[in-house]
Design a protein that fits this description.
Blueprint lengths: L3 E8 L6 H15 L4 E8 H7 L3 H17 L8 E4 L5 H10 L4 H5 L2 H12 L11 H15 L5 E3 L5 H17 L9 E3 L29 H10 L17 H9 L2 H12 L4 H27 L2 H30 L6
Parallel strand pairs: 1-2, 2-3, 4-5
Helix pairs in contact: 2-7, 3-12, 4-7, 4-13, 7-8, 9-12, 10-12
Bound molecules: tryptophan.
GO biological process, one term: tryptophanyl-tRNA aminoacylation
Function: Catalyzes the attachment of tryptophan to tRNA(Trp).
Catalytic activity: tRNA(Trp) + L-tryptophan + ATP = L-tryptophyl-tRNA(Trp) + AMP + diphosphate + H(+)
Length: about 325
């Protein structure tokens, strides 16, 4: 049986938070346990350089993200788990793709367009002010990530769908120009059931809004942050609306159906915000205590993490190197026998 190849990348610029866990990490780890799937999960650390020129931040984030996935039980015998920057074939493929990718396609990328729009709104003479080639052409790097391993399914957030379509475009063009089935056309998978978690201020939990709850914050910090979640001014005893309530949403994301139903009832019966927050803290802490301990142990043993990632890179390169050979041949860069 040929396994479906599922691949996704995590940009290494931040510290994993509850929103990342519910929206991406948890479903990815679950999917990696499916025997009909071969999963490729990697730290998109070359992508990190586009947004972040703080070496320490990038370095720290890579370690934290790796430790997080391992602490939460990613089975690295099953899934291929690696750092993008350990696979030199990826930037090489990026160049081959750059040479078949229309510039006009990149002009239409959302991230680039948003940066241009910001410049225009700020009245800047140069619409490209402050925009690097990295930002402009990053969909090509992302296409290389995906096409390198002939991934069929790419789980991503909505904002990334366009990039997968661009990868399909490049794959099709390359196949056509060089007359072969070199690349599989990938598909974006957006799981409608996976929740976008709200953050401390009620907006989407996101590093850019500075409203996150780090997944492995200490117990004390976790309690402090849960207490900061924005609620309204209803008093204890007054019935509350569980829908459209960030606190309830986070609670439900971790609770069993029965626990969530019971909390819903308590809302209707007028539970006080202080009490609801205590219950949320207890629930989160119960779920996170053990992985938090594993996380801390892993963070103290970076050599172990390094070894796991190098093993992953070795497996990934065992596929990337022959693929790259074939592609070199295809474009006229093969060996003289
Ligand atoms: N750009 C993606 C993001 O910001 C991360 C990413 C990089 C990725 N390469 C990828 C996701 C390849 C899926 C496949 O979320």
């Amino acid at each position: 049986m040929t396994k479906t190849r599922v691949l996704t990348g995590i940009t290494t610029t931040g510290t994993p938070h509850l929103g990342n866990y519910v929206g991406a990490i948890k479903p990815a780890i679950a999917a990696s346990q499916d025997p009909s799937v071969q999963s490729y999960y990697f730290m998109a650390d070359l992508h990190a350089l586009i947004k972040c020129q703080e070496p320490q931040r990038v370095q720290e984030s890579r370690l934290e993200i790796a430790a997080t996935w391992l602490a939460l039980g990613l089975d690295t015998d099953n899934a291929i788990f690696y750092r993008q920057s350990d696979i030199p074939e990826i930037p090489e493929l990026t160049w081959l793709l750059s040479c078949v990718c229309a510039k006009g396609l990149m002009n239409r990328a959302h991230a680039y367009k948003a940066a241009v729009a910001e410049n225009e709104a700020a009245g800047n003479q140069d619409p490209d002010k402050g925009i690097t080639m990295g930002l402009f052409s990053y969909p090509v790097l992302m296409a290389a990530d995906i096409l390198m391993f002939n991934a069929k399914k790419v789980p991503v957030g909505r904002d990334q769908i366009q990039h997968i379509e661009m990868a399909r475009d490049m794959a099709g063009r390359f196949n056509h120009l060089f007359k072969g089935q070199y690349f599989t056309l990938p598909e974006a998978v957006v799981d409608e059931r996976v929740e976008v978690l709200g953050g401390l201020d009620g907006r989407k939990m996101s590093k850019s809004y500075n409203n996150t709850i780090p997944l492995f914050a200490s117990e004390k910090k976790l309690l402090k942050l849960v207490r900061k979640i924005k609620t309204n001014s209803l008093e204890p005893g007054e019935p509350k609306d569980p829908d459209n309530c960030t606190l309830f949403q986070i609670y439900s994301a971790f609770a069993t159906q029965e626990e969530a139903d019971a909390m819903r009832q308590e809302y209707l019966e007028g539970i006080g915000w202080g009490e609801a927050k205590n219950q949320l803290f207890e629930l989160l802490n119960e779920h996170l205590r053990e992985p938090r301990e594993r996380y801390q142990a892993l963070m103290e043993d970076p050599g172990h993490i390094e070894a796991v990632l190098l093993k992953g890179a070795e497996r990934a390169r065992a596929e990337a190197a022959p693929m790259m050979d074939r592609l070199r041949h295809a474009v006229g860069l093969g060996r003289f026998h």
